[in-house]
Amino acid sequence: MEYHLNGDEPEVIGKKCSGLCLIQHQEGDSITDPANTIYFKFDSNWSKLCFDGSTIFWRRESPSEPVNDNIGSCLVLLNLSELNGVIGFLLDGIEYFGGDEKVTAKFKFSSGKNLEFVHHCYEDFTAINC
User: Fold this and answer.
1) Predicted pLDDT at 71
2) For residue 1, is pLDDT > 90?
3) How many domains does the chain have?
C-alpha cells in the first residue's frame, strides 16, 4: 500500500517547534487511538496532521477542546507543549512511509529526537513512537 498526501505539507523544515497537542480517543479506561489528530505549532502557526486509511492529511488549523456527549467513548486534548527534545528545537525533516497495513509520518528534530506517528490502516488507530 502506498501513502497519499492530501493538502500541502506546511513549510516547517528548519523552524522551531513551539507547540504540540494530540487528540486521543478513549473508550472506558483504555486509550484506543493515542494520536487520532496531531497539532504542531511552528512560529505562530498551527498545523493539523491526521490519517484516514492510507491518506495523510495536512491542514492549517489550531487545536480546540473536543466536546463529548458521554464518558464511555470520548475524545481528549493532550497538551504536550513541554515535550523534551521537541519543543524549542528545529525540525530537520519529515519522512513518510507506506507499507502493507501501515502509513508513517516521521519527524526528525535537531535534538536528535524523532517522533513517529504510525497509522494502522485496517484497525484505524495511530500509535506514537519517540
Assistant:
1) 85
2) no
3) 1
Q: Which residue range is the domain that position 121 belongs to?
A: 4-129
Report d(CA 47, CA 12) in Å as an integer.
Answer: 9
- Sheet with 4-6: strands ordered across: 4-6, 55-59, 45-52, 30-42, 17-27, 73-79
Q: How do residues 37-66 score in pLDDT, each as one tens digit?
A: 999 999 999 999 999 999 999 999 999 999
Whole-number Å distance between alpha carbons of 121 and 53: 5
Q: Residue 99 above 80 pLDDT?
A: no
Q: How far apart are CA 7 and CA 110, in angstroms?
A: 25
CA distance 14 to 32: 33
Q: Coil, strand or helix: which one is 42? A: strand
Half-sphere exposure of 34 (CA within 13 A, CB side): 11
In which residue are the cell numbers 517547534 written? Answer: 17
| Chain centroid to CA 5 | 14
Across 9-14, average pLDDT: 97
pTM of the predicted protein model: 0.94
* Distance from C-alpha of 104 to C-alpha of 127, rounded to nearest angstrom: 9
